[in-house]
Amino acid sequence: MNLGDQITAIIDISLLSIAVVISFIYILPIIFVQRFHTTTNILTGNVGISAIVCGVFWIGLNVVRNFYPFLFYQSASSCTCLEYLPVLVNALLIYSFVVVTINRYLTIIYSTKPFFKRRTWAFLSIVVHWFVCFLISIPNLVISIQVRIISHD
């Protein structure tokens, strides 16, 4: 690894670390202050948690890929995980914004319906969001396993 790649990796890790810390600081009041337990803030907290999960994954991947590359070749399951997890964490972050957008749209369109303003709706949206993200990532997992099986034959 040359010096330019190392500098780029350090900058990337530093920026991701700052984003994770800021997201963590942002979601703390949403978790601990009772008056912030509104539907919008719960969904915003989901965005923050998704950002933390995504940032921690990419920090770990960049550290291992750039400074400990031999760890990738120690097990066959690491290849499978590296096909599944990037899609999962990126989908978590992207679709968390989609969930917020859909929730705000439904709140405006159905302003007389109290269901879309309840915390139950927010938590249901979050559960569906995480479930869909795990489902979206499964094809990469299946393809990775198939490629690994075919390459060993």
Summarize the topology.
Layout: H1 3-32, H2 39-67, H3 76-109, H4 119-152
Structural class, please? mainly alpha
Uncertain regions: pLDDT < 50 for 5+ in a row? none
Strand content: under 5%
Overall pLDDT level: 89
Task: Estimate the global geometry from the Cα principal axes.
Answer: flat
Order of helices and strands: HHHH
The termini sit apart by 33 Å
Beta-strand segment tally: 0
Question: Key features?
Answer:
single chain; flat; mainly alpha; 153 residues
Short structural description:
With 153 residues, the chain is mainly α.
Q: What report would you give on this structure?
A:
This protein is mainly alpha-helical and 153 residues long. 83% of the residues lie in helices and 0% in strands. The mean pLDDT is 89.
